[in-house]
Amino acid sequence: MATKVSSKLPTQDDQSVTAGWLTSGYSTYQVQSFLGHGAFSSVAKCTRMDDMKTVAIKMMKRQGSYVEHAKLEVAALKKLKSLDPDECNLVRWYRSFVDRGHICLEFEHLDQSLFDLMNGRNFRPLHLNEIRLIVQQLACALGHLKAAGIIHADLKLENVMLVNHLQEPFRVKVIDFGLAQTVRSAQLGSYIQTRPYRSPEIILGCSYTEVIDMWSLGCLVAQLFLSTSLYPGSCEYDMIRYIMETQGQLPENILTFGAKTCFFFQGDNSSTSTFWKLKTPEQFQRETGIQPKETRLLKLTSLDNLLDIRIIDCEKVVDRLAEMSDVQMFVDMLKGMLQLDPARRITPHQVLEHHFTSMHHFINLYPGSSYVSSASHMMDVSWNKSPPSHSGKAACKPQRKSRSRTTKAIQPAGSNRSGGKRKVVDVVGHANTVSTAPASEPDTTRPCSVREHLARSILNDHTYARREKPRPSNSAETERPARPRRTRKRPVDEDVPPRKRTTKRCGKKSSAGPSTSG
């Protein structure tokens, strides 16, 4: 359990409890160390003396605005008390108490935050199979918060904790409900969400719902993939500028109803509808005195640029194809999370059903792929190690298709079913016709980007694709069970010679004898 971490050293106000004791009406706690500090609170690692259990206690000063924040957090935690924390991927809250002028909240002790994990690995990006586990669990958590009508409002790397990374790798829980609020109590113009994770509707001062948490999840997932913030604005103007340079113009509905739209945009009412134009950095600085800065380590002109970020360097072609497909589905899911129009943003349930999370896009298509088997194994191990829920069912487990052989991969080169051309369907369902004319042998030894590898794999005669059973060219030649031929039996008279059979040809009688009918 941690909070907004700025230092692991206790503040002056916390000196009274450093290496000391906390007391509640339930138990006595020995303070072992401080885990972190934030704007409103400090978190200490403590031992609960009645059962010697290690817990995390969040302490807030009982004065001024701290009391109001504490009340809001306790109200949200009480509303979530009936949920199974393990099933819902939410931190377990035990109780609250007051000691020596501090409002104390007792939580389960967790391992480390995702920020600590990334910092410990020098911010090297995570593997997609690892990101998939985190996405699935956080979508589960957001789904339960949505059902409870609660907005977390501060989802970020620091507020996602690993439970026990050594024993249960990448099993996570959401913490810190200090800014949480109900959807009904959401106030226009609230100052919530940490800036790099702040949604456009919050920046512009629009009304909002729990979908702002999905935007934060998209920024968090992109950070795990890139190892740097997607939109690291030093001010809200920079945030809007970065978002528009990457994803295009903001929807007119949030621009029209945003309380702070005129702070960043200038409107043109010459036409029937208002056209909003983003102010230039120089104009914004003249009007506000705030100097915009360029803080991006990675400038994207489109989210599709993420397809070219990572180098696919697998020895086996089947693994290259599987990973290429995985990157495409990841970017497709990310686009849904970062949808500019809040009404069209993907929901937690849709994230769980998305092909990236459920692995429907490659689980049946690439036999012999170690990439696919590793992804499936990690997801299975994660669920097998998860504590059983009290309800006896895992509501957030993505439903994967059975390993049937009904789905076809890309047709191998040389197939004549499309008249010398093959049809490839990409992740958004667009059909592209690619010629299968002989081409020069590509260099498959050097690493390549996703787009380059897509073109390469299409022209590769040794593409791993599921081959269909051979079909007869003429459907009439299909084998069918032989039907017995009906014959007419008649009595045989030994004294009467059998009549010669006659046939009709072109309407004329044959010379074999008189014709017979039937």
From TrEMBL:
Q: Bias regions of kind Basic and acidic residues — which residues?
A: 463-482
Taxonomic lineage from the root: Eukaryota, Metazoa, Chordata, Craniata, Vertebrata
The record places domain Protein kinase at 29-357
Specify residue ranges for compositional bias: Basic residues. Answer: 499-508
Q: What is one term from the GO cellular component aspect held by the record? A: cytoplasm
The entry marks the following residues as binding ATP, namely 58
Could you identify this protein by its name?
Answer: Putative homeodomain-interacting protein kinase 1-like
**UniProt keyword annotations, A-Z:** ATP-binding, DNA-binding, Homeobox, Kinase, Nucleotide-binding, Serine/threonine-protein kinase, Transferase
Q: Where is the composition biased (Polar residues)?
A: 407-418
Q: Which InterPro entries match?
A: Kinase-like_dom_sf, Prot_kinase_dom, Protein_kinase_ATP_BS, Ser/Thr_kinase_AS, Ser_Thr_dual-spec_kinase
Q: Which GO terms describe its molecular function?
A: ATP binding; DNA binding; protein serine/threonine kinase activity; protein tyrosine kinase activity
Pfam families attached here? Answer: Pkinase (PF00069)
> Region entry Disordered: which residue ranges?
383-423, 457-518
The protein's superkingdom reads Eukaryota
